[in-house]
Amino acid sequence: xxxxxxxxxxxxxxxxxxxxxxxxxxxxxxxxxxxxxxxxxxxxxxxxxxxxxxxxxxxxxxxxxxxxxxxxxxxxxxxxxxxxxxxxxxxxxxxxxxxxxxxxxxxxxxxxxxxxxxxxxxxxxxxxxxxxxxxxxxxxxxxxxxxxxxxxxxxxxxxxxxxxxxxxxxxxxxxxxxxxxxxx
Amino acid sequence: xxxxxxxxxxxxxxxxxxxxxxxxxxxxxxxxxxxxxxxxxxxxxxxxxxxxxxxxxxxxxxxxxxxxxxxxxxxxxxxxxxxxxxxxxxxxxxxxxxxxxxxxxxxxxxxxxxxxxxxxxxxxxxxxxx
Lengths: 184, 130
Prior knowledge:
The complex is a heterodimer of chains A (about 180) and B (about 130).
Chain A: H1 16-19, H2 30-44, H3 54-75, H4 77-87, H5 102-120, H6 124-151, H7 155-183
Chain B: H1 5-12, E1 27-34, E2 39-47, E3 53-61, H2 64-77, H3 82-86, H4 90-97, H5 104-129
Protein backbone atom coordinates (compact mmCIF):
# COMPACT_ATOMS: atom_id res chain seq x y z
CA UNK A 1 0.00 0.00 0.00
CA UNK A 2 2.97 2.29 0.50
CA UNK A 3 3.21 2.92 -3.21
CA UNK A 4 -0.43 3.99 -3.25
CA UNK A 5 -1.51 0.84 -5.02
CA UNK A 6 -4.30 -1.30 -3.62
CA UNK A 7 -4.33 -5.10 -3.66
CA UNK A 8 -6.59 -4.83 -6.73
CA UNK A 9 -3.94 -2.86 -8.54
CA UNK A 10 -5.82 0.41 -8.30
CA UNK A 11 -3.36 3.26 -8.33
CA UNK A 12 -4.46 5.80 -5.74
CA UNK A 13 -1.88 8.41 -6.58
CA UNK A 14 -2.43 8.39 -10.34
CA UNK A 15 -4.17 11.26 -12.06
CA UNK A 16 -7.77 10.74 -13.17
CA UNK A 17 -6.85 9.77 -16.73
CA UNK A 18 -4.22 7.24 -15.73
CA UNK A 19 -6.61 5.99 -13.09
CA UNK A 20 -9.03 4.93 -15.82
CA UNK A 21 -6.29 4.00 -18.30
CA UNK A 22 -7.25 6.78 -20.71
CA UNK A 23 -5.22 9.22 -22.75
CA UNK A 24 -5.12 12.69 -21.12
CA UNK A 25 -7.04 14.54 -23.81
CA UNK A 26 -10.14 16.71 -23.94
CA UNK A 27 -11.73 14.65 -26.72
CA UNK A 28 -12.06 11.77 -24.37
CA UNK A 29 -13.29 8.29 -25.36
CA UNK A 30 -16.48 8.61 -23.35
CA UNK A 31 -17.59 5.06 -24.05
CA UNK A 32 -14.30 3.72 -22.68
CA UNK A 33 -14.63 6.07 -19.71
CA UNK A 34 -18.09 4.71 -18.89
CA UNK A 35 -16.85 1.12 -19.19
CA UNK A 36 -13.78 1.70 -17.01
CA UNK A 37 -15.93 3.52 -14.48
CA UNK A 38 -18.33 0.58 -14.20
CA UNK A 39 -15.41 -1.86 -13.89
CA UNK A 40 -13.74 0.20 -11.19
CA UNK A 41 -17.04 0.66 -9.38
CA UNK A 42 -17.63 -3.08 -9.33
CA UNK A 43 -14.13 -3.70 -8.01
CA UNK A 44 -14.40 -1.31 -5.10
CA UNK A 45 -18.08 -1.68 -4.30
CA UNK A 46 -18.48 -1.66 -0.50
CA UNK A 47 -20.66 -4.81 -0.70
CA UNK A 48 -17.58 -6.73 -1.73
CA UNK A 49 -15.99 -5.76 1.55
CA UNK A 50 -18.97 -6.56 3.74
CA UNK A 51 -17.06 -9.34 5.47
CA UNK A 52 -13.74 -7.57 5.45
CA UNK A 53 -12.13 -5.92 8.45
CA UNK A 54 -12.85 -2.38 9.51
CA UNK A 55 -9.66 -0.97 7.99
CA UNK A 56 -10.28 -2.70 4.68
CA UNK A 57 -13.84 -1.45 4.56
CA UNK A 58 -12.67 2.08 5.15
CA UNK A 59 -10.15 1.82 2.35
CA UNK A 60 -12.80 0.43 0.02
CA UNK A 61 -14.99 3.41 0.80
CA UNK A 62 -12.11 5.73 0.02
CA UNK A 63 -11.64 3.97 -3.31
CA UNK A 64 -15.29 4.29 -4.16
CA UNK A 65 -15.08 8.02 -3.45
CA UNK A 66 -11.95 8.28 -5.56
CA UNK A 67 -13.60 6.43 -8.46
CA UNK A 68 -16.60 8.74 -8.34
CA UNK A 69 -14.52 11.87 -8.15
CA UNK A 70 -12.39 10.83 -11.10
CA UNK A 71 -15.46 9.93 -13.15
CA UNK A 72 -17.37 13.12 -12.38
CA UNK A 73 -14.32 15.21 -13.27
CA UNK A 74 -13.74 13.51 -16.60
CA UNK A 75 -17.33 12.92 -17.67
CA UNK A 76 -18.36 16.57 -17.98
CA UNK A 77 -16.48 18.78 -20.43
CA UNK A 78 -15.96 21.85 -18.23
CA UNK A 79 -14.48 20.08 -15.19
CA UNK A 80 -12.46 17.91 -17.61
CA UNK A 81 -11.00 21.00 -19.30
CA UNK A 82 -10.23 22.59 -15.94
CA UNK A 83 -8.56 19.39 -14.82
CA UNK A 84 -6.42 19.29 -17.97
CA UNK A 85 -5.40 22.92 -17.46
CA UNK A 86 -4.58 22.27 -13.84
CA UNK A 87 -2.54 19.25 -14.89
CA UNK A 88 -0.65 21.43 -17.38
CA UNK A 89 0.05 23.96 -14.62
CA UNK A 90 -2.06 26.63 -16.31
CA UNK A 91 -3.41 29.26 -13.94
CA UNK A 92 -7.13 29.78 -14.45
CA UNK A 93 -6.82 33.46 -13.58
CA UNK A 94 -10.17 33.31 -11.79
CA UNK A 95 -9.05 35.62 -9.05
CA UNK A 96 -8.89 38.52 -11.44
CA UNK A 97 -12.43 39.63 -12.07
CA UNK A 98 -11.36 42.26 -14.58
CA UNK A 99 -9.82 39.56 -16.76
CA UNK A 100 -12.97 39.21 -18.85
CA UNK A 101 -13.35 41.60 -21.79
CA UNK A 102 -16.10 44.21 -21.17
CA UNK A 103 -17.86 43.27 -24.42
CA UNK A 104 -18.17 39.69 -23.26
CA UNK A 105 -19.51 40.78 -19.88
CA UNK A 106 -21.91 43.23 -21.50
CA UNK A 107 -23.27 40.42 -23.65
CA UNK A 108 -23.60 38.20 -20.59
CA UNK A 109 -25.56 40.96 -18.89
CA UNK A 110 -27.88 41.26 -21.88
CA UNK A 111 -28.45 37.49 -21.87
CA UNK A 112 -29.21 37.53 -18.17
CA UNK A 113 -31.60 40.45 -18.63
CA UNK A 114 -33.36 38.59 -21.44
CA UNK A 115 -33.70 35.51 -19.22
CA UNK A 116 -35.09 37.57 -16.35
CA UNK A 117 -37.57 39.32 -18.67
CA UNK A 118 -38.77 36.10 -20.30
CA UNK A 119 -39.14 34.55 -16.89
CA UNK A 120 -41.10 37.47 -15.57
CA UNK A 121 -43.36 37.50 -18.63
CA UNK A 122 -43.76 33.73 -18.22
CA UNK A 123 -42.62 33.16 -21.80
CA UNK A 124 -41.55 29.55 -21.95
CA UNK A 125 -40.99 29.75 -25.71
CA UNK A 126 -38.74 32.76 -25.18
CA UNK A 127 -36.65 30.83 -22.68
CA UNK A 128 -36.45 27.85 -25.01
CA UNK A 129 -35.23 30.13 -27.78
CA UNK A 130 -32.60 31.63 -25.47
CA UNK A 131 -31.57 28.16 -24.37
CA UNK A 132 -30.96 27.12 -27.96
CA UNK A 133 -28.86 30.19 -28.66
CA UNK A 134 -26.81 29.73 -25.50
CA UNK A 135 -26.31 26.03 -26.27
CA UNK A 136 -25.10 26.88 -29.75
CA UNK A 137 -22.65 29.42 -28.35
CA UNK A 138 -21.45 26.83 -25.86
CA UNK A 139 -20.96 24.21 -28.57
CA UNK A 140 -18.85 26.65 -30.57
CA UNK A 141 -16.75 27.37 -27.50
CA UNK A 142 -16.35 23.71 -26.61
CA UNK A 143 -15.32 22.95 -30.20
CA UNK A 144 -12.66 25.62 -30.08
CA UNK A 145 -11.60 24.51 -26.60
CA UNK A 146 -10.99 20.97 -27.92
CA UNK A 147 -8.69 22.37 -30.62
CA UNK A 148 -6.82 24.57 -28.15
CA UNK A 149 -6.30 21.76 -25.65
CA UNK A 150 -5.67 18.75 -27.87
CA UNK A 151 -4.24 20.16 -31.10
CA UNK A 152 -2.65 23.51 -30.39
CA UNK A 153 -1.86 23.00 -26.70
CA UNK A 154 -2.42 26.70 -26.18
CA UNK A 155 -3.33 26.53 -22.52
CA UNK A 156 -3.58 30.27 -21.91
CA UNK A 157 -6.14 30.61 -24.71
CA UNK A 158 -7.88 27.46 -23.47
CA UNK A 159 -8.16 28.99 -19.99
CA UNK A 160 -9.85 32.01 -21.55
CA UNK A 161 -12.40 29.73 -23.26
CA UNK A 162 -12.98 27.90 -19.99
CA UNK A 163 -13.68 31.19 -18.19
CA UNK A 164 -16.20 32.12 -20.88
CA UNK A 165 -17.79 28.70 -20.63
CA UNK A 166 -18.11 29.06 -16.86
CA UNK A 167 -20.32 32.10 -17.45
CA UNK A 168 -22.25 30.31 -20.20
CA UNK A 169 -22.82 27.24 -18.01
CA UNK A 170 -24.16 29.53 -15.29
CA UNK A 171 -26.40 31.24 -17.82
CA UNK A 172 -27.69 27.87 -19.03
CA UNK A 173 -28.48 26.78 -15.49
CA UNK A 174 -30.37 30.06 -14.95
CA UNK A 175 -32.42 29.35 -18.07
CA UNK A 176 -33.10 25.78 -16.99
CA UNK A 177 -34.12 26.98 -13.57
CA UNK A 178 -36.47 29.52 -15.14
CA UNK A 179 -37.98 26.90 -17.45
CA UNK A 180 -38.48 24.47 -14.58
CA UNK A 181 -40.20 27.19 -12.56
CA UNK A 182 -42.56 28.01 -15.44
CA UNK A 183 -43.35 24.39 -16.19
CA UNK A 184 -44.44 23.74 -12.63
CA UNK B 1 -26.39 30.21 3.36
CA UNK B 2 -27.69 32.64 5.91
CA UNK B 3 -27.31 36.26 4.98
CA UNK B 4 -26.62 39.07 7.42
CA UNK B 5 -29.38 41.61 8.05
CA UNK B 6 -27.50 44.24 6.08
CA UNK B 7 -27.17 41.95 3.08
CA UNK B 8 -30.88 41.13 3.22
CA UNK B 9 -31.74 44.82 3.47
CA UNK B 10 -29.75 45.68 0.34
CA UNK B 11 -31.07 42.59 -1.41
CA UNK B 12 -34.69 43.43 -0.66
CA UNK B 13 -34.32 47.20 -1.07
CA UNK B 14 -31.50 47.67 -3.55
CA UNK B 15 -30.20 51.25 -3.65
CA UNK B 16 -29.71 52.84 -7.03
CA UNK B 17 -30.61 49.81 -9.13
CA UNK B 18 -30.80 50.46 -12.86
CA UNK B 19 -28.87 52.21 -15.58
CA UNK B 20 -28.19 55.72 -16.82
CA UNK B 21 -29.08 56.75 -20.32
CA UNK B 22 -26.34 55.89 -22.79
CA UNK B 23 -25.67 59.47 -23.81
CA UNK B 24 -25.89 61.10 -20.40
CA UNK B 25 -22.94 63.34 -19.79
CA UNK B 26 -20.26 62.25 -17.37
CA UNK B 27 -21.49 58.66 -17.24
CA UNK B 28 -18.93 55.85 -17.18
CA UNK B 29 -19.45 52.12 -16.84
CA UNK B 30 -17.51 49.40 -15.04
CA UNK B 31 -18.26 45.84 -16.06
CA UNK B 32 -16.85 42.96 -14.04
CA UNK B 33 -17.59 39.29 -13.70
CA UNK B 34 -16.47 36.33 -11.63
CA UNK B 35 -16.08 33.12 -13.63
CA UNK B 36 -16.19 30.96 -10.51
CA UNK B 37 -19.80 31.86 -9.76
CA UNK B 38 -20.87 33.36 -13.09
CA UNK B 39 -21.81 36.65 -11.42
CA UNK B 40 -21.92 39.74 -13.62
CA UNK B 41 -21.84 43.25 -12.19
CA UNK B 42 -22.31 46.63 -13.88
CA UNK B 43 -21.53 49.79 -11.96
CA UNK B 44 -22.18 53.18 -13.52
CA UNK B 45 -20.98 56.48 -12.13
CA UNK B 46 -22.11 59.95 -13.14
CA UNK B 47 -19.31 62.43 -12.64
CA UNK B 48 -19.93 66.16 -12.37
CA UNK B 49 -17.75 68.90 -13.88
CA UNK B 50 -16.02 69.29 -10.52
CA UNK B 51 -14.84 65.67 -10.71
CA UNK B 52 -17.16 64.53 -7.94
CA UNK B 53 -19.37 61.46 -8.39
CA UNK B 54 -22.92 62.83 -8.35
CA UNK B 55 -24.81 59.63 -8.80
CA UNK B 56 -24.27 55.90 -9.28
CA UNK B 57 -26.32 52.97 -10.49
CA UNK B 58 -25.80 49.25 -10.57
CA UNK B 59 -27.12 46.13 -12.17
CA UNK B 60 -25.95 42.79 -10.84
CA UNK B 61 -26.82 39.24 -11.73
CA UNK B 62 -25.56 37.08 -8.93
CA UNK B 63 -26.11 36.00 -5.38
CA UNK B 64 -27.46 38.17 -2.57
CA UNK B 65 -23.98 39.12 -1.40
CA UNK B 66 -22.99 40.33 -4.87
CA UNK B 67 -26.17 42.39 -5.15
CA UNK B 68 -25.69 43.84 -1.66
CA UNK B 69 -22.01 44.64 -2.32
CA UNK B 70 -22.81 46.56 -5.49
CA UNK B 71 -25.83 48.28 -3.94
CA UNK B 72 -23.66 49.40 -1.03
CA UNK B 73 -20.89 50.84 -3.19
CA UNK B 74 -23.35 52.95 -5.19
CA UNK B 75 -24.14 54.65 -1.88
CA UNK B 76 -20.51 54.92 -0.87
CA UNK B 77 -19.13 56.43 -4.08
CA UNK B 78 -21.67 59.27 -4.17
CA UNK B 79 -20.12 62.58 -3.18
CA UNK B 80 -16.60 61.20 -3.54
CA UNK B 81 -13.92 62.27 -6.00
CA UNK B 82 -12.61 59.56 -8.31
CA UNK B 83 -9.48 59.15 -6.21
CA UNK B 84 -11.53 58.87 -3.04
CA UNK B 85 -13.76 56.27 -4.68
CA UNK B 86 -10.67 54.25 -5.59
CA UNK B 87 -9.75 54.10 -1.92
CA UNK B 88 -12.77 51.93 -1.12
CA UNK B 89 -11.47 48.48 -0.25
CA UNK B 90 -13.24 45.18 -0.48
CA UNK B 91 -12.45 44.55 3.18
CA UNK B 92 -14.56 47.58 4.13
CA UNK B 93 -17.45 46.27 2.04
CA UNK B 94 -17.12 42.78 3.51
CA UNK B 95 -16.98 44.20 7.01
CA UNK B 96 -19.98 46.49 6.55
CA UNK B 97 -22.09 43.63 5.17
CA UNK B 98 -20.65 41.00 7.53
CA UNK B 99 -19.87 38.75 4.57
CA UNK B 100 -18.73 35.21 5.41
CA UNK B 101 -15.33 34.10 4.00
CA UNK B 102 -16.92 32.22 1.07
CA UNK B 103 -18.57 35.47 -0.07
CA UNK B 104 -15.50 37.71 0.12
CA UNK B 105 -15.14 37.42 -3.66
CA UNK B 106 -18.42 39.36 -4.00
CA UNK B 107 -16.87 42.33 -2.23
CA UNK B 108 -13.76 42.03 -4.41
CA UNK B 109 -16.04 42.13 -7.43
CA UNK B 110 -17.61 45.37 -6.17
CA UNK B 111 -14.20 46.96 -5.55
CA UNK B 112 -13.11 45.93 -9.04
CA UNK B 113 -16.31 47.41 -10.45
CA UNK B 114 -15.42 50.82 -8.97
CA UNK B 115 -11.92 50.59 -10.45
CA UNK B 116 -13.34 49.61 -13.85
CA UNK B 117 -15.88 52.46 -13.83
CA UNK B 118 -13.23 55.04 -12.88
CA UNK B 119 -10.88 53.66 -15.55
CA UNK B 120 -13.68 53.91 -18.11
CA UNK B 121 -14.40 57.51 -17.10
CA UNK B 122 -10.74 58.50 -17.35
CA UNK B 123 -10.36 56.76 -20.68
CA UNK B 124 -13.39 58.56 -22.08
CA UNK B 125 -12.30 61.92 -20.69
CA UNK B 126 -8.74 61.62 -21.95
CA UNK B 127 -10.07 60.47 -25.32
CA UNK B 128 -12.30 63.55 -25.50
CA UNK B 129 -9.44 65.88 -24.61
CA UNK B 130 -6.91 64.26 -26.90
